[in-house]
Amino acid sequence: MKYGILGGSFDPPHLGHIEIARAAREHLELDEVIIIPNNRNPIKSRPMATAQQRMEMVKIAIDGEPGVALSDIEISRPGRSFAVDTLEELTMAMPGDYWFLMGADSLHTLPEWKEPDKLLKFCRIGVVERPGSDLDKEIGILPPHWRESIDRIPMSLKRGSSTQIRKMIADGESPEMWLDPDVYAYIQENNLYQPNE
Question: What residue segments make up the domains of the chain, in order of their start?
């Protein structure tokens, strides 16, 4: 089996995340993309929505999406979420070939991750070429022995990010063009990302 791992805060999950999963499945010929919301990202600030709310939004976002699954492996593990720990657990529980999926704009942070050399023993890196990104430059600054573990995933990714979506909601604007309608309904029902009173 060939698996893609798409980790992140998913605060909230948006259509770009689903597009990444689709492009990775097609280009890397993956059997399944597993979306893994993190408990606490060691690099980014704490999520605004709770772990349970983020899990629920991902469930809604991937409903009916073939070959895409959700895992609570990081949510159920206390403390910070490290890709190397997750991949080590997954490869023992579900042997197969793994790709850790990320955007080209995140590739330069790889040296800051916990035990990146060990991580690359468990998986390859699938990098989404976002519009306007200079992937050759990003790959070029990595250590030479890492470069052979990187696979490009070409796609015309829509602009939009979770940060932008949260800001739009806080500003009273509609982010419908970036969100599954049912995810947006969930956000509204639960009053998520509202401005601080």
Answer: 2-159
pLDDT in tens, 2-34: 999 999 999 999 999 999 999 999 999 999 999
Question: How far is the C-alpha of 24 from the C-alpha of 6, rounded, in Å?
Answer: 10
Over the stretch 43-88, which tens digit does the pLDDT of each residue have? 555 668 999 999 999 999 999 999 999 999 999 988 888 999 999 9
Name the 3-class secondary structure at 151.
Answer: strand
- Please name the residue that has the structure tokens 């698996």: 3
Which fold would CATH assign to domain 2-159? Rossmann fold (3.40.50)
Give the β-pairing of 124-129 and 97-103: parallel
Distance, in Å, from the CA atom of 13 to the CA atom of 53, rounded to the nearest integer, reads 11
Nearest to 156 by CA among 64, 29, 27, 9: 27
The DSSP code for 6 is E
Edge-to-edge strand list for the sheet holding 97-103: 68-70, 32-37, 2-8, 97-103, 124-129, 150-154
Residue 131 backbone zone (phi > 0: left; psi -120 to 50: alpha; other: beta): beta
